[in-house]
């Protein structure tokens, strides 16, 4: 497993990182099996584990803690805060009040005295970024977080956070975690170049686009085709139909290249020079084994050019893909009405 330096942190991380959203009630409810999967990933050379307080209501963090007993010092441990952890509106967001509570809750569940990377799960339009960065800087100074980062930030929000940190004397975001796959290439136009300009490490999630690039005969079936993400699989929607057409072409290209489709998909994301590590989020052991087998896959310029013909650079095939909308000033009525 190759390593790269995570932005300006100096921390060496594997090109693959293990995302644990699928461990717990949201996916695999078998704690022992989930622990074995984490051990399999570590034994294969993965040293970055990414979780979040909101994953299965904290259950994912508990599972990660079980798996890391005796191995904590060998792992770059990342978690996230900010999404709602209850009905109380103060149990979420980027306020100093919540950050101080959220980090203590995560450290308790993770059974550790610090995390290596503490990430803001989504921007909070209701909280001044100065307030958020001030509270996060306190955590770094207290030794509870080694570095801080963001997730799903727009280019403008990345720049604002960087400028605020510089002008107010705060620790700055060292990483960004955006969605990125062959089918969701919108971040190539501004997010990835902006992160690279500020020397940020980039941890991408969703390389298989919620199963669309998993190689299944019918990617619209499966556990993710219901609930909040159902619109991503509704073939009556033009964007979803366009995605299905692209997947058929990509499947043929993968076969021509002699690669399983998920190997082509993960190798594509890893090939971008701004990407530090690709988060893989398996639910079952066989999914993890298959993805680990793709660690050495490399795509030549000819294959990358063919992918560009199927999905143009900077394009999101289905603009409605994101079940958490990245444009709250447009979609959140509270931000455009008195």
Biggest sheet character:
8 strands, parallel, barrel
Number of helices: 11
Task: Strand order, main sheet: write it out.
Answer: 3-4-5-6-7-8-9-10
Mean pLDDT: 94
Structural class: alpha/beta
Quick gist of this model?
This protein is of the alpha/beta class. The protein has eleven helices and ten strands.
Q: What descriptors fit this protein?
A:
36% helix; eight-stranded parallel β-barrel; two-stranded antiparallel ribbon; 10 strands; globular; 11 helices; 338 residues; alpha/beta
Topology overview:
Blueprint: E1 3-5, E2 12-14, E3 16-19, H1 31-43, E4 48-50, H2 59-67, E5 76-81, H3 96-110, E6 117-120, H4 129-141, E7 148-151, H5 155-168, E8 173-177, H6 191-197, E9 201-204, H7 238-257, H8 261-270, E10 277-280, H9 285-292, H10 301-310, H11 328-331
Helix pairs in contact: 1-2, 1-9, 3-4, 4-5, 7-10
Descriptive report:
With 338 residues, the chain is α/β, with parallel strands linked by helices. 36% of the residues lie in helices and 12% in strands. It has helices spanning 31-43, 59-67, 96-110, 129-141, 155-168, 191-197, 238-257, 261-270, 285-292, 301-310, 328-331; strands at 3-5, 12-14, 16-19, 48-50, 76-81, 117-120, 148-151, 173-177, 201-204, 277-280. An eight-stranded parallel beta barrel has the order 3-4-5-6-7-8-9-10, surrounded by six helices. The protein has a two-stranded antiparallel sheet with strand order 1-2. Helix 6 (191-197) links the parallel strand 8 and strand 9. The chain is globular, with a radius of gyration of 19 Å. The protein starts with a strand and ends in a 7-residue tail after the last helix. The mean pLDDT is 94.
């Amino acid at each position: 497993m190759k390593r790269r330096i995570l932005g300006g942190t100096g921390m060496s991380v594997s090109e693959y990182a293990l995302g644990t959203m699928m461990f717990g009630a949201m996916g695999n409810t078998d704690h022992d099996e989930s622990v074995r999967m984490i051990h399999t990933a570590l034994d294969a050379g993965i040293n970055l584990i990414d979780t979040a307080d909101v994953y299965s209501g904290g259950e994912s963090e508990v599972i990660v803690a079980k798996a890391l007993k005796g191995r904590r010092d060998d792992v770059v441990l990342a978690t996230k805060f900010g999404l709602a952890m209850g009905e109380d509106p103060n149990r979420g967001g980027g306020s100093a009040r919540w950050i101080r509570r959220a980090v203590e809750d995560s450290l308790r569940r993770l059974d550790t005295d610090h995390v290596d990377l503490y990430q803001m799960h989504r921007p909070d339009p209701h909280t001044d970024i100065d307030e958020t960065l001030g509270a996060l800087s306190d955590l770094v100074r207290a030794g509870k977080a080694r570095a801080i980062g963001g997730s799903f930030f727009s280019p403008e929000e990345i720049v604002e956070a960087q400028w605020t940190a510089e002008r107010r004397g705060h620790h700055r975001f060292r990483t960004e975690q955006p969605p990125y796959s062959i089918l969701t290439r919108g971040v190539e136009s501004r997010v990835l170049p902006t992160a690279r300009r500020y020397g940020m490490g980039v941890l991408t999630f969703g390389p298989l686009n919620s199963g669309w690039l998993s190689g299944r005969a019918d990617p619209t079936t499966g556990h993710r085709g219901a609930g909040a993400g159902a619109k991503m699989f509704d073939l009556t929607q033009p964007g979803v139909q366009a995605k299905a057409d692209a997947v058929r072409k990509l499947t043929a290209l993968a076969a021509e290249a002699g690669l399983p489709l998920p190997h082509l998909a993960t190798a594509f994301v890893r090939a971008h020079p701004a990407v530090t590590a690709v988060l893989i989020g398996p639910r079952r052991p066989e999914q993890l084994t298959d993805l680990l087998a793709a660690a050495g896959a490399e795509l030549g310029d000819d294959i990358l050019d063919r992918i560009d013909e199927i999905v143009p650079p900077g394009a999101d095939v289905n603009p409605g893909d994101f079940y958490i909308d990245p444009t709250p000033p447009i979609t959140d009525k509270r931000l455009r009405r008195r």
